């Protein structure tokens, strides 16, 4: 099989005369082979990728899980600036210790850490946060209840006042009419 083709390489590659026609032919041939390969085997490659991807993802997840577990289980030693060990254990134990130190640290009424000995009125950071959240929610609920009660009391008072006012006006008008009628009947 023989293919004859004429290609204007100046338009394709901005040919400046430095590349030989043999180099250009090789490059064109490689590109044509790559394109033909893609067209011929694209569906097979896609099918293989679809079959391999779930297996690859699950294998990667397992490897990652193993690495994370080994990282947390790895024993470490932390020392002070003089080389005396201050902690020896796993990273997981260190994280638990630091978490406990933070959550159970004594704080004052403003949530600031208390250093030295703690007075009887101090609380842990966790207690401070919980009480602050509970107080905030309680105040919010109380404000909502007070607002609803005020609205209901105002509506009831306005209704009662309107009824009393209407009753007084009705009574005065009735008395005035009765007085006018009595005056007109007596004359």
Keywords for this structure?
single chain, 187 residues, mainly alpha
Structure overview:
With 187 residues, this protein is mainly α. It has three domains: 9-71, no CATH class; 74-124, no CATH class; 125-187. Helix content is 71%, strand content 8%. It contains four helices and four strands; from the N terminus they run H-H-E-E-H-E-E-H. The protein has helices spanning 9-13, 21-73, 91-103, 125-186, and strands at residues 75-79, 85-90, 106-107, 123-124. The chain has a two-stranded antiparallel ribbon. A two-stranded antiparallel ribbon has the order 3-4. A hairpin with a 5-residue loop joins strand 1 and strand 2. The longest helix is centred in the C-terminal third of the chain and has 62 residues, at 125-186. It is flat, with a radius of gyration of 45 Å. It starts with 8 loop residues before the first helix and ends with a helix. The mean pLDDT is 82.
Kindly report how far apart the N and C termini lie: 140 Å
Largest sheet: 2 strands, antiparallel
Coarse shape: flat
Q: How does the helix and strand content classify structurally?
A: mainly alpha
Order of helices and strands: HHEEHEEH
Q: Specify the oligomeric state.
A: single chain
Strand content: 5-15%
The average pLDDT score comes to: 82
Q: What is the spatial order of strands in the main beta sheet?
A: 1-2
> In percent, how helical is the residue content?
over 70%
Please report the number of helical segments.
4
The low-confidence runs, each spanning 5 or more residues with pLDDT under 50, are: none
Number of structurally distinct domains? 3
* Number of extended strands: 4
Q: From the alpha-carbon coordinates, what is the Rg to the nearest angstrom?
A: 45 Å
